[in-house]
Amino acid sequence: MIECTDFNRLRKGQRVRKYYYSGNTLLYKDGTVEKGLYGDGFAYVRWDNEEGLDINVNMYDVVLLK
pTM for the full model? Predict the structure, then answer.
């Protein structure tokens, strides 16, 4: 997959990736947008291999996967 950061909205069904640190290791998790957003605000994302729905995802915290 190619990462794309040139976007200003998240739409339902799009795939996103979130990077985070665990100790000294850079990790990532992929997910699917369940409820999108435009501009500032929060999207709902269902992360792969996780039960719950993350309702606190800002568009600046993730990159869009193509």
Answer: 0.80
